């Protein structure tokens, strides 16, 4: 029987904990929120999330991956119902950040005798996050083990990425569970503990990979190699349903998606440091925009990267972007070191970008921009300065800036190639001319999520079904509106009228700056589905995205029509005629 889609963001349920046994002496504690947890791009589908923690009660007791501070109180209450804190022996950390450190501090107050098991980078972070804590540490080095008794002889694998340099996976041979923390997750909230009917979560897991893992494709492949020899029955990620039925498909997906990222013809080096997580959040959104446009991102956390690694990466990259927080009116030492390596090793013909976050001032961002400009570098987008925590609108601006940066690199490459190509007509040219004879209705797709709205001109539109009435729209992967067109979301197809389409066509064809209002100067009203309607259109159809299919450099969006009306009964549909099928 087909399963319902993952819970949508409109569900007005409070946060809670779902505690379920998943194997012998092993439990999952699923801290659940049915609404968006954070303003980070990885939560952009707004389907809630689960923060999965695990409890192994053998001769010795271990908690794995406690959740962040949003769930601290209810998590502690749930654990208190299942064990005596005085008997807790270990807390195992797949990664550490400020949110998780808050919960860990509360656990230590109840169980000061416990030992914290983590990687060395995580231990260094803990020293900064909990400077007053007297920690008993078991630092994992290489393929260490930990015996909890009753065959629960845990094996560890170090799986660092730039975003989580302290990454650690844990394998329990007694239950054949691989606890993967940040790997293989999905931000969805529901009652399912395991992934029965796993295809319903395919879009969510791919989106999570694209936002979180794609900028670290090289490190992801290395991590997959480290866990390849472990005979797991299922994966226990930090977010979403546990993977039993779709485990092999998701594992192969990670391999394929990572290889696709690494094989792109162009690459961008993305350097950053992040004191409180805000700059890292901006970096992630920019990286998402770059990868959407078919350009590889090599993400570099300057707090853990060596100068040699930085110089090697910047020399190989086609462009680079650097971001920094401002601490005490300055950029962190690691960013200053990275900037020096860039100025020494990067060619001035390479495109550059600057971003950062700050609390009361932004001197570090100004420093980066001025040094690069003085050195002769051209910036690929207006420098991004964000005060305090980013919002949805900020993240959308960052994503669009990343896409613009990637498109500029691709355009420059195309110009170079055209200068080198033959002027003789080739078979490819003739094929493109033939494909260009396909015509379609000229339309404008509009969509809105909260305060974020976007639109695009579209002519690759076709009716797809009679019952229910449905249509398909081809949306290029690097379109800004693409990120608003996931399954379950609303959009409106505004059909333009012949003899009255040129103004709207020119408006939506022009390039927009990141975050620029697409509807400024256009007469609109808001439809029943919350999306803009163009008053000067011929007709409009209010739709819901029911499916997406990846097709080369486009997504094919299938939407079912919820409502529609004709605004000009005497008008004819505008049609887009092209001379070539190689571009719009």
Automatic annotation (TrEMBL):
A GO molecular function annotation here is: electron transfer activity
Q: Which SMART domains did the record assign? A: Flavin_Reduct (SM00903), Lactamase_B (SM00849)
Q: What is this protein called?
A: Flavin oxidoreductase
**What cofactor requirement does the entry state?**
Fe cation
What are the UniProt keywords, alphabetically? Answer: Electron transport, Oxidoreductase, Transport
* Organism of origin: Petrachloros mirabilis ULC683
What PANTHER family does UniProt report for this protein, alphabetically? DIFLAVIN FLAVOPROTEIN A 2-RELATED, DIFLAVIN FLAVOPROTEIN A 4-RELATED
Keyword DNA-binding assigned = no
